Amino acid sequence: MPGWPREPALSKAPDKARVAAYHTLRDVTADGAYTNLALSQRLGGAPATDAAFVTELVNGTARALGTLDAIIEAAGGRAISTLQPAVVDVLRLGAYQGLRMRVPSHAAVATSVDLAVSQIGARTSGVVNAIMRRIVERTFDEWLDIVTAGLDEMAALALRYQHPRWIVEAFADRLPADELVPALEADNTPPRTTLAVRPGLMSRDRLVAETGGEATPYSPWGVTVTGDPAVTAVMDGRAGVQDEGSQLVVLAAAGAAQACGVTGPWLDLCAGPGGKTALLRGLAEPEFLVAAELQPHRAKLVGQALRGFDPSGHQVVIADGGCSPWRDESFGLVLADVPCSGLGSLRRRPEARWRRQPTDLTSLRSLQGALLAAAWASARPGGVVAYATCSPHRGETEDIVTEFATRRDADVLAAPVFLPDVPDCAATKSFVQLWPHRHGTDAMFLALLRKPS
Q1: Roughly how many angstroms between the first and final C-alpha of the chain, as a whole number?
Q2: What is each CA distance from 379 to 130, 268, 384, in whole angstroms?
Q3: Greater pLDDT, 179 or 230
Q4: Are 363 and 357 in contact (CB under 8 A)?
Protein backbone atom coordinates (compact mmCIF):
# COMPACT_ATOMS: atom_id res chain seq x y z
CA MET A 1 0.00 0.00 0.00
CA PRO A 2 1.33 3.54 -0.79
CA GLY A 3 3.48 5.00 1.97
CA TRP A 4 4.03 1.70 3.77
CA PRO A 5 7.61 0.55 4.34
CA ARG A 6 8.99 -1.88 1.82
CA GLU A 7 10.43 -5.22 2.90
CA PRO A 8 14.16 -5.52 3.59
CA ALA A 9 16.40 -7.05 0.94
CA LEU A 10 16.01 -10.81 0.71
CA SER A 11 18.80 -13.22 1.55
CA LYS A 12 19.20 -16.98 1.84
CA ALA A 13 19.18 -16.79 5.61
CA PRO A 14 16.24 -14.92 7.23
CA ASP A 15 17.02 -11.23 7.54
CA LYS A 16 17.39 -9.62 10.94
CA ALA A 17 14.17 -7.63 10.57
CA ARG A 18 11.98 -10.70 10.12
CA VAL A 19 13.75 -12.52 12.94
CA ALA A 20 13.10 -9.51 15.19
CA ALA A 21 9.45 -9.46 14.10
CA TYR A 22 9.11 -13.19 14.85
CA HIS A 23 10.57 -12.91 18.35
CA THR A 24 8.52 -9.80 19.10
CA LEU A 25 5.31 -11.55 18.09
CA ARG A 26 6.31 -14.55 20.22
CA ASP A 27 6.80 -12.17 23.15
CA VAL A 28 3.23 -10.99 22.64
CA THR A 29 1.43 -14.26 21.91
CA ALA A 30 3.39 -16.66 24.11
CA ASP A 31 4.55 -14.45 26.98
CA GLY A 32 1.75 -11.88 27.19
CA ALA A 33 3.97 -8.88 26.43
CA TYR A 34 2.54 -5.56 25.30
CA THR A 35 3.32 -4.98 21.63
CA ASN A 36 4.77 -1.49 22.07
CA LEU A 37 7.08 -2.55 24.89
CA ALA A 38 8.19 -5.71 23.09
CA LEU A 39 8.99 -3.70 19.96
CA SER A 40 10.98 -1.19 21.97
CA GLN A 41 13.08 -3.93 23.54
CA ARG A 42 13.68 -5.84 20.31
CA LEU A 43 14.44 -2.85 18.07
CA GLY A 44 17.12 -1.12 20.09
CA GLY A 45 19.76 0.10 17.66
CA ALA A 46 18.03 -1.29 14.55
CA PRO A 47 18.33 0.72 11.30
CA ALA A 48 15.37 3.01 10.68
CA THR A 49 14.18 1.09 7.62
CA ASP A 50 14.20 -2.23 9.48
CA ALA A 51 12.50 -0.67 12.52
CA ALA A 52 9.71 0.74 10.34
CA PHE A 53 9.20 -2.60 8.62
CA VAL A 54 9.16 -4.60 11.86
CA THR A 55 6.83 -2.14 13.59
CA GLU A 56 4.26 -2.25 10.79
CA LEU A 57 4.54 -6.03 10.45
CA VAL A 58 4.16 -6.78 14.16
CA ASN A 59 1.46 -4.21 14.86
CA GLY A 60 -0.52 -5.20 11.78
CA THR A 61 -0.24 -8.91 12.56
CA ALA A 62 -1.22 -8.42 16.20
CA ARG A 63 -4.19 -6.30 15.15
CA ALA A 64 -5.44 -8.83 12.57
CA LEU A 65 -4.71 -11.96 14.60
CA GLY A 66 -8.17 -13.55 14.59
CA THR A 67 -8.77 -12.82 10.91
CA LEU A 68 -5.35 -14.17 9.93
CA ASP A 69 -6.05 -17.34 11.91
CA ALA A 70 -9.28 -17.89 10.00
CA ILE A 71 -7.42 -17.49 6.70
CA ILE A 72 -4.63 -19.85 7.80
CA GLU A 73 -7.19 -22.49 8.78
CA ALA A 74 -9.03 -22.12 5.47
CA ALA A 75 -5.80 -22.29 3.45
CA GLY A 76 -4.36 -25.18 5.42
CA GLY A 77 -7.55 -27.16 5.76
CA ARG A 78 -6.81 -27.77 9.43
CA ALA A 79 -7.44 -26.13 12.78
CA ILE A 80 -4.90 -23.71 14.19
CA SER A 81 -4.73 -25.89 17.30
CA THR A 82 -3.13 -28.71 15.29
CA LEU A 83 -0.11 -26.54 14.48
CA GLN A 84 2.82 -25.74 16.74
CA PRO A 85 2.24 -22.25 18.23
CA ALA A 86 5.59 -21.00 16.92
CA VAL A 87 4.67 -22.19 13.43
CA VAL A 88 1.36 -20.36 13.70
CA ASP A 89 3.21 -17.12 14.43
CA VAL A 90 5.44 -17.61 11.38
CA LEU A 91 2.33 -18.15 9.25
CA ARG A 92 0.63 -15.10 10.74
CA LEU A 93 3.60 -12.91 9.87
CA GLY A 94 3.86 -14.43 6.41
CA ALA A 95 0.16 -14.03 5.72
CA TYR A 96 0.18 -10.40 6.80
CA GLN A 97 3.16 -9.67 4.55
CA GLY A 98 1.66 -11.46 1.55
CA LEU A 99 -1.85 -10.06 1.94
CA ARG A 100 -1.49 -6.63 3.56
CA MET A 101 1.99 -5.27 2.79
CA ARG A 102 3.97 -4.52 -0.34
CA VAL A 103 5.82 -7.82 -0.17
CA PRO A 104 5.74 -9.96 -3.34
CA SER A 105 4.01 -13.32 -2.98
CA HIS A 106 7.17 -15.33 -3.67
CA ALA A 107 9.07 -13.33 -1.05
CA ALA A 108 6.37 -13.84 1.57
CA VAL A 109 6.55 -17.61 1.00
CA ALA A 110 10.33 -17.94 0.82
CA THR A 111 11.10 -15.75 3.83
CA SER A 112 8.46 -17.54 5.92
CA VAL A 113 10.04 -20.92 5.14
CA ASP A 114 13.52 -19.58 5.89
CA LEU A 115 12.29 -18.08 9.15
CA ALA A 116 10.60 -21.30 10.25
CA VAL A 117 13.63 -23.46 9.46
CA SER A 118 16.10 -21.17 11.21
CA GLN A 119 14.01 -20.41 14.31
CA ILE A 120 12.01 -23.62 14.81
CA GLY A 121 13.54 -26.43 12.76
CA ALA A 122 13.85 -27.97 9.32
CA ARG A 123 10.82 -30.22 9.83
CA THR A 124 8.55 -27.18 9.67
CA SER A 125 9.50 -26.24 6.11
CA GLY A 126 6.94 -28.44 4.37
CA VAL A 127 3.85 -27.29 6.21
CA VAL A 128 4.86 -23.62 6.16
CA ASN A 129 5.63 -23.76 2.44
CA ALA A 130 2.36 -25.50 1.60
CA ILE A 131 0.10 -23.22 3.62
CA MET A 132 1.86 -20.02 2.59
CA ARG A 133 1.61 -20.93 -1.10
CA ARG A 134 -2.14 -21.37 -0.74
CA ILE A 135 -2.49 -18.12 1.17
CA VAL A 136 -0.82 -15.97 -1.48
CA GLU A 137 -2.90 -17.51 -4.27
CA ARG A 138 -5.73 -15.12 -3.29
CA THR A 139 -6.05 -11.50 -2.22
CA PHE A 140 -7.06 -10.44 1.25
CA ASP A 141 -10.54 -9.46 0.06
CA GLU A 142 -10.98 -12.82 -1.66
CA TRP A 143 -10.05 -14.59 1.56
CA LEU A 144 -12.51 -12.45 3.49
CA ASP A 145 -15.29 -13.54 1.15
CA ILE A 146 -14.33 -17.17 1.75
CA VAL A 147 -14.03 -17.09 5.55
CA THR A 148 -17.20 -15.02 6.04
CA ALA A 149 -19.40 -17.09 3.73
CA GLY A 150 -22.51 -18.24 5.57
CA LEU A 151 -21.81 -16.22 8.73
CA ASP A 152 -24.31 -13.88 10.36
CA GLU A 153 -23.74 -10.13 10.20
CA MET A 154 -21.88 -9.72 13.50
CA ALA A 155 -19.55 -12.65 12.86
CA ALA A 156 -18.81 -11.45 9.33
CA LEU A 157 -18.08 -7.90 10.50
CA ALA A 158 -15.77 -9.29 13.17
CA LEU A 159 -13.60 -11.07 10.60
CA ARG A 160 -13.72 -8.33 7.98
CA TYR A 161 -12.72 -5.60 10.42
CA GLN A 162 -10.39 -7.64 12.64
CA HIS A 163 -12.25 -7.59 15.96
CA PRO A 164 -13.61 -10.36 18.19
CA ARG A 165 -17.34 -10.71 17.79
CA TRP A 166 -18.14 -9.67 21.37
CA ILE A 167 -16.44 -6.31 20.84
CA VAL A 168 -18.35 -5.73 17.60
CA GLU A 169 -21.57 -6.45 19.48
CA ALA A 170 -20.57 -4.08 22.30
CA PHE A 171 -19.96 -1.28 19.80
CA ALA A 172 -23.20 -2.04 17.99
CA ASP A 173 -25.02 -1.66 21.31
CA ARG A 174 -23.77 1.92 21.64
CA LEU A 175 -23.73 3.26 18.08
CA PRO A 176 -26.18 3.99 15.27
CA ALA A 177 -26.04 1.25 12.65
CA ASP A 178 -24.34 3.47 10.08
CA GLU A 179 -21.47 4.23 12.46
CA LEU A 180 -20.50 0.68 13.36
CA VAL A 181 -18.18 0.04 10.40
CA PRO A 182 -16.47 3.48 10.70
CA ALA A 183 -15.85 2.77 14.38
CA LEU A 184 -14.27 -0.60 13.61
CA GLU A 185 -12.18 0.91 10.81
CA ALA A 186 -10.96 3.67 13.13
CA ASP A 187 -9.64 1.05 15.54
CA ASN A 188 -7.43 -0.26 12.74
CA THR A 189 -5.85 3.12 12.03
CA PRO A 190 -2.85 3.90 14.28
CA PRO A 191 -3.26 7.33 15.88
CA ARG A 192 -0.86 10.23 15.64
CA THR A 193 1.08 11.08 18.78
CA THR A 194 -0.60 13.75 20.89
CA LEU A 195 1.14 15.87 23.51
CA ALA A 196 -0.38 17.99 26.28
CA VAL A 197 1.25 21.01 27.85
CA ARG A 198 1.21 21.20 31.65
CA PRO A 199 -1.04 24.14 32.58
CA GLY A 200 0.99 26.93 34.10
CA LEU A 201 4.31 25.57 32.86
CA MET A 202 4.04 26.14 29.11
CA SER A 203 1.68 27.58 26.54
CA ARG A 204 0.32 25.49 23.73
CA ASP A 205 1.49 28.05 21.16
CA ARG A 206 5.04 27.57 22.42
CA LEU A 207 4.77 23.79 22.07
CA VAL A 208 3.40 24.14 18.53
CA ALA A 209 6.37 26.36 17.67
CA GLU A 210 8.88 23.95 19.21
CA THR A 211 7.49 20.80 17.59
CA GLY A 212 5.96 22.00 14.33
CA GLY A 213 2.83 20.14 15.40
CA GLU A 214 -0.84 21.04 15.13
CA ALA A 215 -3.16 22.23 17.89
CA THR A 216 -5.83 19.70 18.78
CA PRO A 217 -9.38 20.70 17.81
CA TYR A 218 -11.00 20.36 21.24
CA SER A 219 -8.49 20.34 24.08
CA PRO A 220 -6.85 23.69 24.91
CA TRP A 221 -3.62 21.90 25.86
CA GLY A 222 -3.09 19.37 23.06
CA VAL A 223 -0.69 19.26 20.10
CA THR A 224 -0.44 16.41 17.59
CA VAL A 225 3.06 15.69 16.33
CA THR A 226 4.77 13.43 13.83
CA GLY A 227 7.82 11.37 14.73
CA ASP A 228 9.64 11.00 18.04
CA PRO A 229 7.69 12.68 20.89
CA ALA A 230 10.82 13.01 23.04
CA VAL A 231 11.06 16.77 22.50
CA THR A 232 12.66 19.10 25.02
CA ALA A 233 9.34 20.09 26.59
CA VAL A 234 8.51 16.44 27.28
CA MET A 235 11.98 15.67 28.61
CA ASP A 236 11.91 18.54 31.12
CA GLY A 237 8.31 17.98 32.28
CA ARG A 238 6.58 20.97 30.70
CA ALA A 239 4.53 18.63 28.46
CA GLY A 240 3.72 14.94 28.16
CA VAL A 241 2.31 12.37 25.78
CA GLN A 242 -1.45 12.15 26.28
CA ASP A 243 -4.43 11.34 24.07
CA GLU A 244 -6.82 14.23 23.54
CA GLY A 245 -9.69 12.17 24.99
CA SER A 246 -7.92 11.97 28.35
CA GLN A 247 -7.32 15.70 28.24
CA LEU A 248 -11.04 16.31 27.68
CA VAL A 249 -11.93 14.22 30.73
CA VAL A 250 -9.85 16.57 32.90
CA LEU A 251 -11.24 19.65 31.13
CA ALA A 252 -14.82 18.60 31.93
CA ALA A 253 -14.08 17.50 35.50
CA ALA A 254 -12.30 20.75 36.35
CA GLY A 255 -15.07 22.73 34.66
CA ALA A 256 -17.70 20.97 36.77
CA ALA A 257 -15.76 21.68 39.96
CA GLN A 258 -15.55 25.35 39.05
CA ALA A 259 -19.23 25.56 38.10
CA CYS A 260 -20.28 23.92 41.35
CA GLY A 261 -18.09 26.22 43.45
CA VAL A 262 -16.12 23.29 44.84
CA THR A 263 -13.49 24.09 47.47
CA GLY A 264 -10.92 21.93 49.17
CA PRO A 265 -8.11 19.70 47.93
CA TRP A 266 -8.41 17.56 44.80
CA LEU A 267 -7.81 13.82 44.54
CA ASP A 268 -6.72 11.68 41.59
CA LEU A 269 -7.77 8.27 42.89
CA CYS A 270 -6.14 5.99 40.27
CA ALA A 271 -3.33 8.28 39.17
CA GLY A 272 -0.85 6.12 37.24
CA PRO A 273 0.82 6.80 34.90
CA GLY A 274 0.15 10.48 35.65
CA GLY A 275 -1.02 12.25 32.49
CA LYS A 276 -4.35 13.35 33.94
CA THR A 277 -2.65 14.04 37.28
CA ALA A 278 -0.32 16.58 35.67
CA LEU A 279 -3.24 18.44 34.08
CA LEU A 280 -5.14 18.42 37.36
CA ARG A 281 -2.06 19.72 39.18
CA GLY A 282 -1.83 22.70 36.86
CA LEU A 283 -5.53 23.48 37.29
CA ALA A 284 -5.92 22.77 41.02
CA GLU A 285 -4.06 25.79 42.39
CA PRO A 286 -4.52 27.20 44.94
CA GLU A 287 -5.96 23.88 46.09
CA PHE A 288 -3.69 20.97 47.04
CA LEU A 289 -3.64 17.80 44.88
CA VAL A 290 -3.25 14.25 46.16
CA ALA A 291 -2.40 11.55 43.61
CA ALA A 292 -2.98 7.96 44.76
CA GLU A 293 -1.57 4.92 42.95
CA LEU A 294 -1.46 1.32 44.14
CA GLN A 295 1.54 0.11 42.13
CA PRO A 296 4.90 1.59 43.22
CA HIS A 297 6.36 1.64 39.70
CA ARG A 298 3.31 3.52 38.41
CA ALA A 299 3.45 5.90 41.38
CA LYS A 300 7.02 6.67 40.29
CA LEU A 301 5.70 7.56 36.83
CA VAL A 302 3.18 9.90 38.44
CA GLY A 303 6.00 11.62 40.28
CA GLN A 304 7.91 12.02 37.03
CA ALA A 305 4.85 13.52 35.33
CA LEU A 306 4.66 16.12 38.11
CA ARG A 307 8.38 16.96 38.17
CA GLY A 308 7.91 20.37 36.58
CA PHE A 309 5.62 21.60 39.37
CA ASP A 310 6.42 22.98 42.81
CA PRO A 311 6.22 19.87 45.05
CA SER A 312 4.61 21.87 47.85
CA GLY A 313 1.33 21.81 45.90
CA HIS A 314 0.90 18.04 45.59
CA GLN A 315 1.64 14.67 47.12
CA VAL A 316 1.93 11.25 45.50
CA VAL A 317 0.69 8.45 47.74
CA ILE A 318 1.14 4.71 47.22
CA ALA A 319 -2.30 3.56 48.31
CA ASP A 320 -5.21 1.32 47.38
CA GLY A 321 -7.98 3.63 46.26
CA GLY A 322 -10.54 1.20 47.62
CA CYS A 323 -8.95 1.25 51.10
CA SER A 324 -7.76 4.82 51.40
CA PRO A 325 -5.47 6.23 54.12
CA TRP A 326 -7.25 9.61 54.18
CA ARG A 327 -10.40 10.52 56.03
CA ASP A 328 -13.77 10.35 54.32
CA GLU A 329 -15.18 13.56 52.87
CA SER A 330 -11.75 15.16 52.49
CA PHE A 331 -11.78 16.33 48.86
CA GLY A 332 -13.72 18.82 46.78
CA LEU A 333 -13.02 17.07 43.45
CA VAL A 334 -12.26 13.37 43.02
CA LEU A 335 -11.25 11.88 39.68
CA ALA A 336 -11.66 8.10 39.45
CA ASP A 337 -10.19 7.01 36.11
CA VAL A 338 -10.75 3.36 36.91
CA PRO A 339 -9.09 0.23 35.45
CA CYS A 340 -11.14 -1.08 32.55
CA SER A 341 -11.10 -3.36 29.52
CA GLY A 342 -9.31 -0.74 27.43
CA LEU A 343 -11.70 -1.21 24.52
CA GLY A 344 -11.46 2.51 23.90
CA SER A 345 -7.73 2.40 23.11
CA LEU A 346 -7.58 -0.47 20.62
CA ARG A 347 -5.96 1.82 18.02
CA ARG A 348 -2.79 2.07 20.07
CA ARG A 349 -2.82 -1.41 21.68
CA PRO A 350 -3.20 -3.87 18.80
CA GLU A 351 -2.93 -7.03 20.90
CA ALA A 352 -5.57 -5.98 23.44
CA ARG A 353 -8.63 -6.89 21.37
CA TRP A 354 -7.63 -10.56 21.22
CA ARG A 355 -6.33 -10.72 24.79
CA ARG A 356 -9.46 -9.49 26.52
CA GLN A 357 -12.45 -11.78 27.05
CA PRO A 358 -16.07 -10.95 27.96
CA THR A 359 -15.56 -12.72 31.29
CA ASP A 360 -12.93 -10.12 32.22
CA LEU A 361 -15.69 -7.56 32.61
CA THR A 362 -17.15 -9.39 35.60
CA SER A 363 -14.11 -8.86 37.82
CA LEU A 364 -13.51 -5.40 36.36
CA ARG A 365 -17.05 -4.32 37.09
CA SER A 366 -16.66 -5.30 40.74
CA LEU A 367 -13.45 -3.28 40.99
CA GLN A 368 -14.96 -0.31 39.16
CA GLY A 369 -17.95 -0.24 41.50
CA ALA A 370 -15.69 -0.40 44.54
CA LEU A 371 -13.52 2.46 43.29
CA LEU A 372 -16.55 4.61 42.48
CA ALA A 373 -17.80 4.00 46.01
CA ALA A 374 -14.38 4.95 47.41
CA ALA A 375 -14.35 8.12 45.32
CA TRP A 376 -17.80 9.00 46.60
CA ALA A 377 -16.74 8.43 50.21
CA SER A 378 -13.68 10.63 49.68
CA ALA A 379 -15.70 13.58 48.35
CA ARG A 380 -16.92 16.18 50.77
CA PRO A 381 -20.60 17.29 50.75
CA GLY A 382 -21.19 19.41 47.69
CA GLY A 383 -18.10 17.93 46.04
CA VAL A 384 -17.83 16.46 42.54
CA VAL A 385 -16.84 12.92 41.58
CA ALA A 386 -15.67 12.32 38.00
CA TYR A 387 -15.89 8.66 36.92
CA ALA A 388 -13.94 7.87 33.75
CA THR A 389 -13.03 4.77 31.76
CA CYS A 390 -11.28 4.20 28.44
CA SER A 391 -14.12 2.02 27.20
CA PRO A 392 -17.46 2.39 25.44
CA HIS A 393 -18.82 -0.90 26.85
CA ARG A 394 -22.14 -0.30 28.57
CA GLY A 395 -21.30 -2.74 31.36
CA GLU A 396 -18.41 -0.68 32.67
CA THR A 397 -19.78 2.78 31.91
CA GLU A 398 -23.47 3.72 32.01
CA ASP A 399 -24.61 0.65 33.94
CA ILE A 400 -22.06 1.17 36.72
CA VAL A 401 -22.87 4.84 37.20
CA THR A 402 -26.64 4.58 36.86
CA GLU A 403 -26.86 1.80 39.41
CA PHE A 404 -24.58 3.63 41.84
CA ALA A 405 -26.34 6.98 41.48
CA THR A 406 -29.71 5.38 42.13
CA ARG A 407 -28.53 3.67 45.31
CA ARG A 408 -26.74 6.75 46.70
CA ASP A 409 -29.25 9.36 45.56
CA ALA A 410 -26.43 11.13 43.75
CA ASP A 411 -26.97 14.19 41.60
CA VAL A 412 -25.86 13.19 38.08
CA LEU A 413 -24.59 16.28 36.32
CA ALA A 414 -24.98 16.76 32.57
CA ALA A 415 -21.36 16.02 31.66
CA PRO A 416 -21.66 17.02 27.97
CA VAL A 417 -22.46 20.58 29.08
CA PHE A 418 -18.83 20.92 30.19
CA LEU A 419 -17.53 20.05 26.71
CA PRO A 420 -19.62 22.49 24.66
CA ASP A 421 -17.16 22.60 21.75
CA VAL A 422 -17.02 18.81 21.27
CA PRO A 423 -19.76 17.73 18.84
CA ASP A 424 -21.73 14.51 19.29
CA CYS A 425 -20.02 13.67 22.58
CA ALA A 426 -23.21 12.88 24.52
CA ALA A 427 -23.96 9.20 25.04
CA THR A 428 -27.06 10.45 26.87
CA LYS A 429 -27.90 13.88 28.23
CA SER A 430 -25.91 12.91 31.35
CA PHE A 431 -22.83 11.06 30.06
CA VAL A 432 -19.94 11.81 27.70
CA GLN A 433 -18.76 9.12 25.27
CA LEU A 434 -15.95 9.97 22.88
CA TRP A 435 -15.12 7.86 19.80
CA PRO A 436 -12.09 7.56 17.50
CA HIS A 437 -14.19 7.80 14.34
CA ARG A 438 -16.09 10.88 15.58
CA HIS A 439 -13.50 12.81 17.54
CA GLY A 440 -10.11 11.30 16.66
CA THR A 441 -9.62 10.42 20.33
CA ASP A 442 -9.66 7.26 22.39
CA ALA A 443 -13.20 6.15 23.30
CA MET A 444 -13.25 7.77 26.75
CA PHE A 445 -16.38 7.72 28.91
CA LEU A 446 -17.12 10.32 31.58
CA ALA A 447 -19.81 10.73 34.22
CA LEU A 448 -19.99 13.56 36.75
CA LEU A 449 -21.73 13.11 40.10
CA ARG A 450 -22.30 15.72 42.80
CA LYS A 451 -22.59 14.75 46.44
CA PRO A 452 -25.55 16.31 48.29
CA SER A 453 -24.56 19.18 50.55
Answers
A1: 59
A2: 64, 11, 7
A3: 179
A4: no
